[in-house]
Each structure stands twice: as structure tokens, then as C-alpha cells.
Amino acid sequence: MNLNPSLATHFARIALGHVGREYPHKLDQVLSSDGDLLPPRTLHPIFFGSFDWHSCVHGWWTLLTLHRLFPDLATAAEIAALADRRMTVANGLAERAYLDRPLAAGFERPYGWAWLLALHHEACRHENRGWAAALQPLADAIADRFMVYLSKLTYPITVGTHANTAFALVLAREWSLDRRPALTHAIDLWAMRTFGEERDYRGWEPGGDDFLSPALTAALLMSRVMEPSQFTAWFDRFLPEPAMARFQPVEVSDRSDGKIAHLDGLNLSRSWCMFSIAAVIAPSPRVAGLNAAGQRHLDAALPHVAGDYAGEHWLATFALLALCRAPVAPR
Questions:
Q1: Would 166 disulfide with which of 2, 136, 144, 217, CB 3.0-4.6 Å?
Q2: Closest CA to 320 of 19, 111, 9
Q3: What DSSP element (H or E) covers 299?
């Protein structure tokens, strides 16, 4: 299935239904006094919905991306009006102030950081709006923090959940290109030092609550850092074709369980990685196999983007990532 107006409308309705839904909400907060006990909408005037801060950030990325790709959708005016109300300079400064709190150094590091940069990158594409300007102070602060973080991150975090380093750097690097050459350079150096000599991946995955593949996110990062021919050779060493046989769509036993529901996201994020890697290594004979595997993973998860709020508050984002990279099916 290709991304089309009907599916885009479906995703937009899902995201509109949760970016403004304050409760239930899981705060990422270190308390320093009773005065810190405030409702999400006060602490985070832009990103108080979607169960948690990072999901709200990438819910907004979903909405702005769909608004750009499908400007004639019935939801377009609603998206723009809501973004105009929420993404103001004052609200952006309040979000920045939360990040600057003394005990917030690790707030949303690195997953939420990366998605904020991705959202700002998307907002910059909407030049006739003030959304990017509202997010600029927050994006600048997070870019600075990524520089500090990479300078002391001796080892990669290769889990399948939010702390995953490679996934965050894929998004951060896209933002930094043409904006922060120093950050791009730092990411590239760190990636080459960390993953450049890796081969014959034998990690344990999937884990029971993964929504990211440690192997494929590392490979996706390297596909952005290396030249295509260099990456193709690296990928053949890192994940030889026989090893790819283990990457089959995963089963989800209980979609009302927030952690187990992560596995639908694993299918979607694997699909995104496979499609993206296939596009880089073309015309390698592995392209067809990667695209076929990516489609199997997408087909397994796409029917479950909506349903239970445990997955509904975030899965459309990962479906959109995969669909934006999927090969266009012939008519």
C-alpha cells in the first residue's frame, strides 16, 4: 500500500485525536520541590498530549508532514489552526525553560531530543507559518546538548527502545545538515568510530518490548554517514544476506499492554530501515529481498495503527516513516 489521501486522512485523524489529549499522561520529571507538581499543560504548553512528551512531539511531526504532503486534505485547516494556537513563541520559550531546569539535563535524551529536531526540520518547510520560529530556541538548545552528549558517550546504547543511540542520530543528523556542520561532523566521527569496523552482527533481537532494531538502526545511520559504495560493502559485512533471514515480522500478543504494543512499532521501524537501506545499496542484488522484507513488516503492522490507545498514541508516526520510504507500487 502506498501513502494516499485516504490513509493520510486516517493518520491525521489519529494524531489530532491525541496531541491535545492531556490524560492519561506519563511525565518525565525529576522533582525538586512541591512547586514542581503541576499539570502537563502547564509544564509543557505545546507538548502536553499523547501520553508523553516525545509521543506528542512526533505526533506533531506526523501532522505537519501530512499537511505538507497533502495540503488539500479535509484535515489541513484543522492541523494549521491547532498548530498556530499551540506553536507560539511564548509556548516555545516555556518548553525551553523546562529543558533548562537544573535537574532536566537528561530530559528526553536522546529520543525526545531527536524527534524535536525532526519536528523543527519539518516546521521549517512551512515557510509561511511561525511554527519553526517558535521551536527554534528549543532546537538550538537540543543541538548544543547533542554535541556535549556525543563528546562523552564512549559506547553506543544498542537497545530496541528509547535510549537507542543510532536512531536518535539518524534524525539529528538530518536536522544538522546545512544548519550545524559541527554537529554533522561530530555524528559522523562518532558513528565511524563506533560502528565502522563492526561485522557479522549477532545481537539478540527482537526483545520483548522493542520498537527499534539495534542492528537496522545502526545500519541506517551508517547509510547516511558513508558513501553508497562504501556503505554497501559495510552492510554486506555487518549483516550478510543469510543473517537477514532472522528478520521476520514479529507477533504482538496483547495490544493493550503498552510495552508489548511496542512490537507493532518494531515491524514498522524495521520496514522503514529496510526500505531506506535498499534505496542506498541499489543496484545491489539484495535490494529486492530488503524491499520484500520491508513490505512484509509493513503489512503485519499497518492494520493495527489504530485501536488501543497503548499503540494509537504513537504508531502512525512510524507507519508514516515507512510509507514515505516504501517503493512506489506500479499502477
A1: 217
A2: 9
A3: helix 287-301
Q: How far apart are CA 59 and CA 11, in angstroms?
A: 10
Which CA distances in Å does 36 have to 32, 43, 140, 292? 7, 9, 25, 50
Residue 308 reports pLDDT greater than 90: yes
- Classify the phi-psi angles of 108: left when phi > 0, otherwise alpha if psi is within -120 to 50, otherwise beta: left
Residue 57's Cα: distance from chain center in Å? Answer: 10
d(CA 75, CA 64): 11
So what's the pLDDT on residue 202?
Answer: 86
Enter the pTM of the model: 0.97
Identify the burial level of 104 via C-beta atoms within 10 angstroms of its C-beta, where 0-12 means exposed, 13-18 middle and 19 or more buried: middle
C-alpha cell at 56: 506528542
- The Cα 54–Cα 176 span in angstroms is 19
What percent of the chain has a predicted confidence (pLDDT) above 70?
99
Cβ-based neighbour number of residue 178 at 10 Å: 7
Tens of pLDDT along 18-77?
Answer: 999 999 999 999 999 999 999 999 999 999 999 999 999 999 999 999 999 999 999 999
pLDDT of residue 329: 62
Q: Using CA of residue 319, residue 317, residue 246, residue 189, what is the dihedral sign?
A: positive
d(CA 123, CA 64): 7
Phi-psi region of 124 (alpha: psi -120 to 50; beta: other; left: phi over 0): alpha
